[in-house]
Amino acid sequence: MSMEDGAPKKRRALEHRAFVYGGTDHFLAVTEPFLRSGLEAGEAVVAVARRSNLSALHDLFGDGAGIEWVDAAGFYLHPVRTLRDYQALVNKFAPRPVCALAEPVWTGWDERQTLEWIRYESLINEVFKDSGARALCPYDGEALPPRIIEEARRTHPMVVTDGPALASGAYVAPAAFGANCDRHRRFTRPDDAEYFAVDDADLHALRSFVAERALLHGLAKRPAQNLVTAVNEVAANAVQHGLPPVGMWIWRDGPELLCEIGDNGLWRPAPSALTGFIPPRSALQRGFGLWTVRLLVDLVELRAGWDGTFVRLHIR
């Protein structure tokens, strides 16, 4: 790291822009100069896009351009794991800043998963705020639902359409954005959900119960083990920091198995909307346990209110 007046030179702030495009020609007209600017600046250039867009760009640049090509379909599988993988890229190339073309995948998700991917785009602003990275996120304005385009303007400080990037008047900071996502969660539980009372800190019986039910519901061995580990982490936290009674419900919902752990306490971490989403620097950092739980299962939903704190785990 270069030094100036005896102090480390601070990295520039993240540049995070949404790009709403219409057709392949428009896509290439903006993304090609963006990637070239990264190459000319000596940045680590990564292109993550849909296969058709990736192929069109590759035809322009060829194999020896110095760009790392990544198919978005294999990269955007789980929002928290994708955050982790982008962080690994930033760390891999440090101290060189990253220039990333990052086209999210918006098909194949249910409403809850879509909400988490929208939240993911907001979290980028917090996770990489001091990384010096530049990110351009293409959104297909002709194919995507209007709601997704609208959310892009709320999760990106700058938006590119036909001309230069302009500040988005709809942009919402990550903590406020995440809090709004959580406020709109609605937790309903079926009457036939099985209940297990967690009476003490010895969670062996709970782990055995979850393992049996997971296999009974048809989960493969690895997802079943992941669910047991996740339930154990959340329940241990509820026993240590929550208020009794502590309990867990488990039920099947279509292709998903759900576990919900609840206690009578009102958990108010600050800022709660970012807890467990920001990649921790070590196992000792606050939020490490919830971050690990998010990596283990497909979706984590958290609700804290007058009736207690509830963490719901989804796994397919």
UniProtKB/TrEMBL annotation:
Occurrences of domain Histidine kinase/HSP90-like ATPase (ranges): 197-313
Superkingdom field: Bacteria
Matches recorded under InterPro entries: HATPase_C_sf (IPR036890), HATPase_dom (IPR003594), MEDS_domain (IPR025847), RsbA-like_anti_sig (IPR047718)
Every MEDS domain range: 16-157
- SUPFAM superfamilies documented for this protein: ATPase domain of HSP90 chaperone/DNA topoisomerase II/histidine kinase
UniProt-recorded name of the protein: Putative anti-sigma regulatory factor
Give the originating organism.
Answer: Actinomadura verrucosospora
